[in-house]
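Progress note, sequence design subtask.
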């Protein structure tokens, strides 16, 4: 099949992608009749479960009413209501639509840089966290950790200043770096994944570190960008990770779970004080950026339906129950396999498997995936980091079973 698949090494005789014919709740159904429990939430996008009827109906109804408009000249109720509601929820009143997580990040970076340009200030320096991943477009790659993925483009990525990943071990270094930015007149913005770096291997950190970074960046006159493309919509145990932080972002990037996992949509929310630099009537202070599908009505309708589901008490209760289960499973794992580090942040459970290559290319990525698939579970390890990120349609028993499959693999391969 001449379809070039993402993040996939291609070679003659490679395995075909598995045809999926339908999905429901926590399960994907293959063309050959197998049910696979989805332990990845479809690359971290599916929130309430696959094909959730409430979101499906909202999209169907929108599709019968209004499919698309040219968003520079027109608007529609779903887009207006979505930005209004998220603005009330986050305090970030203005929303700029794009198509996915990478473009939500590109938009955030460009807005931050142009904000200073419009104000006549020469601030162009960006700060990011070591290990960061913000997407695959050039700006997003530039603010992401340099890696084997971005090596072919290394010479073309712009320079960024790196802050150490916040942890008790790195605390002194982090504080030193933050002290060194005091009074700097060139800092435009800091961008970070609040509380949990996903692609880096599901690494969590405490809200106090987010706060201390955000305060230092603000004191230096820079903006704070929260990339909640992954952490948004319950992943860290609250709707947004920054709900757990005292310092709120000036700019917030959303995608992935924004539509409950149904439609591609990026949204960059911006504080009024940032928007003001663009609210001048001067043509050259326009944000000259846009995508053909900006504000797609079907995607906006899906996102609104997703927000409505989040207002239901049962959604919160289910999130809390699954977070408790993940925490219990992590505790039990630590006792059973003391040599294999285990992490749990909100809905995410993860463990590190030993390998001579502990990066993304670790052999566990293929071997554990194949092992779990044979047992009816879809996992996609981040190299040697096995993780489980369930949809809210999952049960405690399914989470335990998924962890048990990782345990069986670990025992079979004599890893602990
Ligand atoms: C934190 C974060 N930001 C941005 C992105 C990029 O999103 P997308 O893959 O939708 O472009 C990702 C994707 O995994 C992510 O985890």
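Output:
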């Amino acid at each position: 099949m001449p379809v070039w698949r993402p993040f996939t090494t291609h070679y003659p005789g490679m395995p075909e992608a598995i045809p999926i014919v339908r999905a429901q709740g926590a399960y994907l159904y293959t063309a050959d009749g197998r049910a696979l429990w989805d332990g990845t939430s479809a690359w971290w996008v599916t929130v309430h479960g696959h094909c959730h009827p409430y979101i499906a109906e909202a999209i169907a109804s929108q599709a019968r009413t209004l499919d698309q408009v040219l968003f520079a000249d027109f608007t529609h109720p779903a887009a207006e209501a979505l930005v209004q509601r998220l603005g009330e929820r986050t305090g970030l009143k203005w929303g700029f639509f794009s198509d996915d997580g990478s473009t939500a990040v590109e938009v955030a970076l460009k807005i931050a840089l142009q904000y200073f340009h419009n104000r006549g200030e020469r601030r162009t320096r960006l700060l990011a966290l070591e290990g960061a991943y913000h997407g695959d477009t050039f700006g997003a790659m530039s603010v992401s950790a340099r890696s084997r993925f971005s090596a072919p483009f290394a010479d073309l990525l712009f320079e960024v200043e790196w802050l150490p990943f916040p942890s008790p071990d790195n605390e002194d270094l982090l504080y030193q770096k933050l002290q060194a930015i005091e009074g700097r007149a060139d800092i435009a913005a800091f961008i970070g994944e609040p509380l949990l770096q996903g692609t880096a291997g599901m690494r969590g950190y405490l809200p106090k570190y987010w706060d201390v970074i955000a305060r230092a960046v603000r004191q230096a006159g820079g903006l704070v960008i929260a990339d909640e493309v992954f952490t948004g919509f319950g992943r860290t145990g609250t709707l947004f990770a920054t709900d757990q932080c005292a310092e709120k972002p000036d700019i917030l990037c959303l995608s992935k779970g924004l539509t409950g996992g149904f439609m591609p949509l990026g949204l960059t929310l911006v504080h009024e004080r940032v928007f003001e630099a663009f609210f001048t009537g001067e043509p050259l202070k326009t944000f000259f950026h846009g995508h053909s599908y900006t504000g797609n009505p079907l995607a906006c309708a899906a996102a609104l339906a997703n927000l409505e589901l989040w207002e239901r008490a049962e959604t919160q209760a289910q999130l809390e129950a699954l977070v408790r289960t993940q925490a219990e499973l992590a505790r039990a794992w630590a006792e059973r396999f003391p040599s294999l580090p285990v992490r749990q942040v909100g809905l995410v459970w993860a463990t590190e498997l030993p390998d001579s290559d502990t990066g993304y290319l670790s052999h566990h990525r293929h071997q554990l995936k194949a092992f779990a698939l044979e047992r009816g579970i879809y996992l996609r390890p981040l190299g040697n980091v096995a993780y489980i990120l369930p949809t809210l349609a999952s049960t405690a028993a399914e989470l335990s079973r998924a962890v048990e499959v990782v345990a069986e693999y670990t025992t079979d391969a004599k890893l602990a």
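The mean pLDDT is 97. Work on this subtask will continue into the next period as scheduled.
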